[in-house]
Amino acid sequence: MPKREDIHRILLIGSGPIVIGQACEFDYSGTQAARALRKEGYEVVLINSNPATIMTDRLTADKIYLKDLTPASIREIVDIEKPDAVLPTMGGQTALNLAGALQDEGFWEAQGVEVIGVDIDAIQITEDRQAFRDLMERIGIDQARSRVAKSLLEAKEIAQEIGELPVVIRPSYTLGGSGGGIVWTHEEFDRKVTRGLEMSPVHEVLIEECLFGWKEYELELLRDANDNVIIVCPIENVDPMGVHTGDSVTVAPAQTLTDKQYQGMRDAAIRAMRSIGTFAGGCNIQFAFDPSGSRMIVIEINPRVSRSSALASKATGYPIAKVAARLAAGYTLDELPNEITGDTSACFEPAIDYVVTKIPRFNFDKFEGVDEELTTQMKAVGEVMAIGRTFAESLQKAWQSLEIGYNGLGGDREDAPPAEVRERLARPLWDRTLQIRNAFKLGASVEEIADVSKVDPWFLYQIRDIVRLEGEIGERTLQEMDAEFMKRAKQYGFSDVQIAYLLNEDATEAQVRARRKALGVIPSYQVVDTCAGEFPAETPYFYSSYEEGNESEASDRKKVIILGSGPNRIGQGIEFDYSCVHGVNAVRDSGYEAIMINCNPETVSTDFDIADKLYFEPVYWERVLDIVEHERPEGVIVQLGGQTALKIAEKIHEHGIRIFGTSYEMMDLAESRGKFSHLLRELEIPFPPYGMAVTVQEAVATAERIGYPILIRPSYVLGGQGMRIAINKEEVQHYTKKIWTLFPENHVLLDLFLENAIEMDVDVVRDGEETWIAGVMQHIEPAGVHSGDSTAVLPPFSLPEEILQTVRTYARDIADRLDIIGLMNVQFAVKDGIVYCIEANPRASRTVPFVAKATGIPVSDIATKVMLGQKLADFRKAGRLASSLEGFAIKEPVFSWDKFPEVPKELGPEMKSTGEAIAFVDALTDEHFQRPYEMRNLYLSR
Amino acid sequence: MQQTSTNGSPCKLALADGIVVKGYAIGHPGETGGELCFNTSMTGYQEIMTDPSYHGQIMMMTYPHIGNYGAMDIDMEAVAPMVAGFVVRQFAAEYSNLQADESLDHFMKRHELVGVSGVDTRRLVRHIRTQGVMNAVISSVDLDDDRLIEKARNWPSMDGLELASRVTMDAAEDWHAGDGPRIAVFDYGVKRNILRSFEAQGCAVRLFPASASLEQVFAWEPDGLFFSNGPGDPRAMPQAIETVREAFRTDIPLFGICLGHQLMALASGCKVYKMFVGHRGANQPVQNLGTGHVEVTTQNHGFAVQEESIGAKVAEVTHRNLNDQTVEGLRFRDRAAFSVQYHPEASPGPHDSQYLFDRFFKEVEAYRRASARNKKKVTA
To answer: Does the model's pTM come out above 0.90?
Structure first.
């Protein structure tokens, strides 16, 4: 069936602010869907309250409503836009729940709006645990023994029926499995059941047989209106059952299933998808195998595009969201081409000839007192994906991608003490793969580790091989590394830093690199082609490996490399991907070939049709330099990818590679507190008294000199990581010690804290001649609450014009002095009529997308073009710097407190919010302003 | 030094066009040659290895990790490995699977199968894709590049090669006896899962040698004839084609898979050609032109039926490959006879096409009822 001609305007529902369990993967899916539908000639009306998304860009949809995701907003939009259909499967559980709620009240039918992409009546089954069980039983798919409880008493009865503890608690209808988990003791059981009953909107919890230690799998399916079903990719979890799949290390394709086992799972998945109503779209199904492989049970079905769909898309090259959207619009799979190869069919199952590893990224350091043990409730804030020809290579690359100081799977520092390894290995923790490596290093056997960790031995053999190779490297000096052995080490994913550390002599990364290149051991680049090389693929989507064949030909065009922002984490999230995507577009507009390097599978920037060339690689120095040497670009853009990209600016500069925009020296000047303060003094801009320390004693002395309360923080971090306000000597000692454990060898900065000051954020763009103030935001909360956690209002609502004038002048002075080319963000605090400069960041900030959405000006796009040499005057002349904002735009932080019930809700200089929403208000009497204004002092802590 | 997955005794793979790559010996140490082809299935290496259709070919797996779950009896598609050699990127010396009997290495050694690991298989796949399939030699006993290339060049070409007689049986043999409808299988190198599929439907299954005459087969009073998959060039099998032609003159239901499909086409006057690069994998999309449904199929063929040669009065195309539009299925006119180029028995691969066995079973049952009636009439 070709696309439907009876619908013209489609409403697409987004997923709202980023929270744990529902992150920027839905910007990927929403953006793909919107673009695919528009390409088919449909008009796309979109609602999402998250300003940091590409999907809410004018480029993506025809009409965009940046509004709260509530039934009221949807009713209002439907009333104005009168869409023919609504597609609710691209915006996570939020969109699906909204569509479901409106379906229940008969809204869609009354308005003549057809729900597409999902059978909205049938999907209740997938969320209603009991109905789902009944259905699976009917179609003959085995499942864990369980029953739904509506009270604690009932829950206890069920637990008794199932047998002994542990059991699993799963509250119905909660996001990312909130409130769920394995319980091992009776006290825990009572507590978690009671809480689960409270949290579930229908006050039901499922008590379930514990599948601890079972192997876990996920399949991504697509189905069309002709009932054709394909499986895009099987994903295997390295972490056994008991850890939420979003928190698990996962690999694609599945590694440890026989074909008969896999096909049995495939059959069951297809049967299950066909049982949840008639619809055309995507679906995700999870299964578990008992370790002996004899029993397979279904865990859950998500009848929508999911986080794993994003992963499967990036892992295979198959654009699931795009295809799912076109299927929802009436196409059948056989009518669609495989966009990667160009001339084969989309109705097939990708075959891959590499291994993909995903590792989640956590931010436990942000939450004091948090329970770090992984459970069935998701806790990760982001993830990285790495592609290698083997599991070992992809695992090491994934560790290089994480940006937590590792250069691979260990082998770059002193080994952890045995007691710690033993203790950590036995628990489901985020660093399990590293602890497995450590255990091998200590001489543990595969059997012992498998017994303790329940990780399938196959993965253990691979990690053991990595450790063996570590030993072999350790027997050699650099000169003794011959080409064959060097290549073998690189094929196992070892970085030059690891090799330098492991060698039998002192060596540096640079020396290893030089030797390696002298031996002719350089990476090759392979195409992600969906077909294991069977057909030629034109798509420029690459990963590195150390093979003989290279498939990435460097073109003779002028090129610019844009460094992505890596895994999402608190303080560096989707906002930076937003800027990167705009940067890529701007680079292409300016006539250059745009090359993207990033390793975050949830993002739009890693879609194969965004940049001219995509390297799905760690944003890790060695890998970046390899690509630079291979592509020989005009230069690199480091301003858009947050701290990730900025961190390697120094090395880029040292290697004589051009950095577009602000020079490295000036970026360093802004980032270095001492030099920056001199600069402020020279410009006669006030700043809070400050000091710097490298020892605890020094920190205390400095604090005593400056006075209290005092703000303590490590230099060169983002999102206020490790930042605290101390009110006495003891606290200074306590906090500085903590900082040095987290960031050894870092300087600690101490600033006098300006109590009750008003904070402001300013984003500017400078072209070398003039500075354009893109946006000035006033925070509702007092200084002390991290700017990312503050409610920001654009334009300022309570400051006199002369203060604002001063703020603008200071921002311009700083930009001029730093000779900014491109973006800069400056933070000010106003106290007693004095404007203090707190810090300047010579890069795209978290607030850039908010400013862009609030004013309607594509700030990152303009900034990138300025970096490439265009002038602001030309943009001004073209009317492109004029704000369309009427009234006020408010940026509201959104938190994921419910995922960490043990952590008290308090705000301070360390950022804790995971996402943001935007609200447009005409007057300050609006609830969106009034609520945070009234509560502005409530949560300020330290 | 302990052995890891990428070291071992040196081994070389030489292609007829002069490419030589170095790797490590896996399985049986020695030398072997054959047509180098590749398979894109990510699971099912043992089924592929033991598929008689691959007789004489060197199989290169595109998925890098091979051997992960060991080897076991239920994954056998024949009594022994059928491929001439095995090429992988990263061979698993150890496996993880409580149901397995042995490691793949042990299995290969036991069956004296020569293989090579540590090879950049992707590069070779891309090479074959652009240059076409070619002969190759694997050796861990002779590491001289020039000699190996020479051996690869002198290896007999698949083109025009009859191979079924090497993998068929010597005499007729029951796979499964019983009272069910009788299916006579012309064994050109049949995969066990085809036989299991007939058996699962309650059929009695007897295998006949490739050279069996129709008379010998009819002496068993079958209710359906099945022409199996198998290796080699179907055009080099005049006797088999003649037997199929004779079968067409009877009214017994006919079903053919892969080589059997090609033989049925040739017997009906269609032409068969050798493909530049064959289809070998478990993800090939095939559209059923009758229903519009798409089946994800297992394929393994280097020859195909030429569509222009199919006489409109002889047969109609029922299935088509969505990637390259090649003919994947035929229904022959005026009688119960159909054939498919792909492998509905899967093993390895998806189970989307099992309905074909149901279809054949229905035709076989109908024939059986009709002939029972006829017999009654005769006796009456």
So the answer is: yes
